[in-house]
UniProtKB/TrEMBL annotation:
Methyltransferase is among the record's keywords: no
Swiss-Prot/TrEMBL GO biological process terms: protein catabolic process; proteolysis
Domain of life: Bacteria
UniProt cross-references to InterPro entries, sorted A to Z: ClpS, ClpS_core, Ribosomal_bL12_C/ClpS-like
Function: Involved in the modulation of the specificity of the ClpAP-mediated ATP-dependent protein degradation.
Key words of the record: Hydrolase, Protease
Boundaries of every Adaptor protein ClpS core domain copy: 16-88
Complex formation: Binds to the N-terminal domain of the chaperone ClpA.
GO MF: peptidase activity
Protein name: ATP-dependent Clp protease adapter protein ClpS
């Protein structure tokens, strides 16, 4: 008789880990220059990347600024809150 626990463990270990996103949302308070500064200082983005993401927040209403394990995305989201930005965690649809 097959070991069902071993089969389940193997099936779970073969699946890729869940990926989550940190999403920063547009708000009526923060200046675009400040959002760019936060993206550069916290995430370490270069100036063009930080500027592009800030423009996505401004024009599209939001931008995905990070992807990874849920716990890490929750930490990024809390950091964005600490900077005064609106941010959420969501499951990566990809």
């Amino acid at each position: 008789m097959p070991d069902l626990d071993a089969e389940t463990d193997r099936a779970l270990s073969e699946q890729p880990p869940s990926t989550w996103q940190t999403v920063v949302w547009n708000d009526p308070v923060n200046l675009m220059s400040y959002v760019t500064h936060v993206f550069r200082s916290y995430f370490g983005f270069d100036a063009p990347t930080a500027h592009r993401l800030m423009l996505a927040v401004h024009h599209d209403g939001h931008a995905v600024v990070a992807r990874g394990p849920r716990e890490v995305m929750e930490a990024h989201t809390q950091a964005m809150h600490d900077f005064g930005l609106w941010a959420t965690v969501r499951k990566d649809p990809a």
